[in-house]
């Protein structure tokens, strides 16, 4: 079980995800327009859509984890936060 292990936060994972998202945003923007300013704005729009979608997906994932029996401490661990912070953010 993942929550039984102490895993240090690895910034390399975050950097890798950020690089992937930049590439995806660039591809999205290039497909939409050739104008430099418009491409820059499309990248912002794309990343904002991802941010909103990720928030919805994260809330669903936390609900699934809790519904499967995960404790708030486990959810906090997965979010790299305290059990109390996880509860305050995601409890209904």
Description:
This protein has helices at 11-32, 36-67, 72-79, 83-90. The mean pLDDT is 89. Helix 1 (11-32) crosses helix 2 (36-67) and helix 3 crosses helix 4. The longest helix is centred in the middle third of the chain and has 32 residues, at 36-67. The chain has 92 residues and is mainly α. 76% of the residues lie in helices and 0% in strands. It has a domain at 35-92.
Distance between termini? 26 Å
Name the beta content range: under 5%
Global mean pLDDT: 89
Number of strands: 0
Q: Which bin fits the share of residues in helices?
A: over 70%
Largest sheet: none
- Spatial extent as radius of gyration: 17 Å
Low-confidence spans = none
Estimated structural class: mainly alpha
Number of helical runs? 4
User: From N to C, what is the helix and strand string?
Assistant: HHHH
Which of globular, elongated, flat, extended, rod-shaped describes the shape? elongated
């Amino acid at each position: 079980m993942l929550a039984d292990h102490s895993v240090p936060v690895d910034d390399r994972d975050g950097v890798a995800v950020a690089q992937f998202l930049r590439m995806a945003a660039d591809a999205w923007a290039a497909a939409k327009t050739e104008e430099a300013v418009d491409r820059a704005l499309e990248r912002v729009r794309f990343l904002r859509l991802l941010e909103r979608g990720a928030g919805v997906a994260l809330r669903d994932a936390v609900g699934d984890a809790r519904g499967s029996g995960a404790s708030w401490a486990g959810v906090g661990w997965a979010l790299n936060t305290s059990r109390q912070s996880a509860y305050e953010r995601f409890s209904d």
